[in-house]
Amino acid sequence: MKRLKVRLVKSLIDEKEEHKRTARALGLRRVGAEREHADTPVIRGMIFQIRHLVEVEEL
């Protein structure tokens, strides 16, 4: 299964509470934080929701 590396590149300050919770659920707590996740539709949906805050790299 493919993996995705997700990096938070913008601050969560002044973002909607829903976006903050999504970032936290992905394991992204501060700017520059990186996490690897399996490439599943659920993870892709979460990334799509906060796509303006993160960078994604396929591994």
Give a summary of the structure in a few sentences:
The chain has 59 residues and is of the alpha+beta class.
Verbal overview:
With 59 residues, the chain is of the alpha+beta class. Helices cover 31% and strands 27% of the residues. The chain has helices spanning 17-25, 41-49; strands at 3-8, 34-38, 54-58. Strands 2-1-3 form a 3-stranded antiparallel beta sheet, with no helix packed on it.
Topology of this structure?
Elements: E1 3-8, H1 17-25, E2 34-38, H2 41-49, E3 54-58
Antiparallel strand pairs: 1-2, 1-3
Domain Large ribosomal subunit protein uL30-like ferredoxin-like fold: 4-54
Family: Belongs to the universal ribosomal protein uL30 family.
GO cellular component, one term: cytosolic large ribosomal subunit
Give descriptors for this structure.
single chain, alpha+beta, three-stranded antiparallel sheet, 31% helix, 50S ribosomal protein L30, ribonucleoprotein, ribosomal protein
Calculate the mean pLDDT score and round it.
97
Termini, distance in Å? Answer: 10 Å
Helix content: 25-40%
- Uncertain runs are none
